[in-house]
Amino acid sequence: MTTRRRNLTSAEARRSEHIVVNSDLVGASDAALTVGVARWLPEALAEVYRRNAGAVFGLAKRLLVEGALAEEVTQEVFVRFWEHPERYDPARGSLRAFLLAAAHGRAVDLVRSETARRAREQRAKAVSGTGYDLEQEVVELVANERVREALDKLPDAQRTAIELAYFGGHTYREVATMQNEPEGTVKSRIRVGLRSMEKELAHLAEGTNR
Amino acid sequence: MTHDETEVLLGAYALDATDEEEREQVEAHLTSCARCQAELTAHREMAAMMATGTRSEVPARVWEQVAASTFSGLARQQATAPPPLLSPLTETRPAQGRLGLAGLAGRLRAISFGLGTAAAAAVLALASFFGIEVGQLHSQVHRLDQQFTSANLAKAAALAAAGPHVTVALAASDGARAATVVVTPKGYAYWISSRLADLPRSETYQIWGLVRGRPVSLGLLGPEPSQTGLFRLEAGTSKLMVTAEPQGGVPLPTTAVLALGNVPPTAVT
Questions:
Q1: pLDDT value, residue B42
Q2: Looking at chain B, which terminus has fewer C-beta neighbours within 10 angstroms, N or C?
Q3: Which of 13-52 (A) contact B at CB < 8 A?
Q4: How far apart are CA B64 and CA B171, in angstroms?
């Protein structure tokens, strides 16, 4: 069954391609796409994928290092969305944030599980010490530059705590050990950092609108 | 956990940086605290913005696999001969409260293969029951958003339970109650509670009706059948049964019955 699933017939492959380039849904809202997925419209899923798969895969790869695992997580996130679109509530944020949170949760589970031990070891080699270097990333969107700015404005300890937790997949307790600080301090550090960035971005957005 | 204790954990929680126990405690608090929910939403958006910088090109095979595990299955079902008694209508998502899925023409075709026009008509009836019309995806989005939530299905179930209905209790082999189903005289059956343990994702609970001595698939409940679900019972259904089956369901039960309940003969008129 699995084998048959993975080997697309050429007709199916053509169909997938066709679906990917369907342009009717390009301007559709998250809510509209979710309704489409709830109605089992392949085109709606394809559009959700087109918009978000890069970010989902990128985040998963960042956390897991191993490309194959990141592919698995990405696949799982979209299949799950197809199966349970009702779990996304448009009142609680963007679809992208929802999908990324799902990917992050899953990736972190893998990072912390025994099966990812090898990946963790590789990661430890790839990333020396605590320095998650965001500078490496190519910043391609204006929004990202703003995020960078907001992140840059944070005190080092806050920024590092957020980076270690989010991109490193560490718990705040682990971060506390790494930073040699009390757990309570790190716990609130992460929250305070996020809130400052949110304020900073809201401020920037206001500035742009004027 | 108090509001203050939870609040200070929200940043770490949003980044999946709490331990399991704290996560559960935060989640319990979130269900009743709009303020914390709003803060969490903001943190998640912030995290998503950070993640966007890590965007990376996805190998084409990932989409192919997504397609193969989702809608390609639908196409294949339509193309092949109808599997005996398998109900494509409720096959994947009766537990999810979105009867609007019936609006998809492809699904209707699949249903008419599998169950005949009576079932297709029932699907259309269900679709109109939820006020959903086919083909107006964009204009009706806001209304549909509301209608697609399981909360609304729960409300529909509550309404059904307030009117004429029969409650069918499904018992596990040890006699303990495993699930409760509310059946209206028209045959709308709401799966309203369940104590079935979660299955691995490669499996699903499948619900069956015994009709004239033969098991008829009523639908798949998924591996975690805790949400309200809706399916149709035909008159003459004497028992409801639940089995655990491979993901995607099977035409006839292949494993032991995990839960069983009697449907009174007059339940569906």
A1: 95
A2: C
A3: 13, 15-16, 19-20, 28-29, 31-32, 34-36, 38-42, 45-46, 49
A4: 41
Return the number of other C-beta atoms located less than 10 Å from residue A162's C-beta.
Answer: 29
Which residue carries 């698939």 as its tokens? B217
pLDDT at position B153, please? Answer: 67
Strand order across the beta sheet in which B214-222 lies? B214-222, B203-211, B237-246, B259-262, B166-172, B177-183, B188-194, B229-232
For A62, nearest residue in chain B (alpha carbons): B54
- Does residue A84 have a pLDDT over 90? no
pLDDT at B152: 60
What are the extents of the domains in chain A? Answer: 7-126, 128-210
Helix residue ranges per DSSP H, B148-185: 150-162
Per-residue pLDDT of A122-145, as tens digits, reads 655 555 444 333 333 433 333 567
- Closest CA of chain A from B137, distance in Å: 7
Q: What is the pLDDT of residue A155?
A: 94
ipTM of this complex: 0.80
- Tell me if the domain spanning A128-210 has CATH number 1.10.10.10: yes
Question: Which listed CATH number (1.10.460.10, 1.10.10.10, 1.10.1740.10, 3.90.1150.10) goes with A7-126?
Answer: 1.10.1740.10
- The residue that leads in pLDDT, A145 or B258, is B258
Burial class for B173, CB neighbours closer than 10 Å (0-12, 13-18, 19+): exposed
**Are B215 and B173 within 8 A, CB to CB?**
no
Domain B152-262 has CATH 1.10.1740: no
Mean pLDDT, chain B, whole residue set: 71
Report the residue from B67, B73, B98 with minimal CB separation from A16.
Answer: B67
Per-domain boundaries in chain B: 3-52, 78-149, 152-262
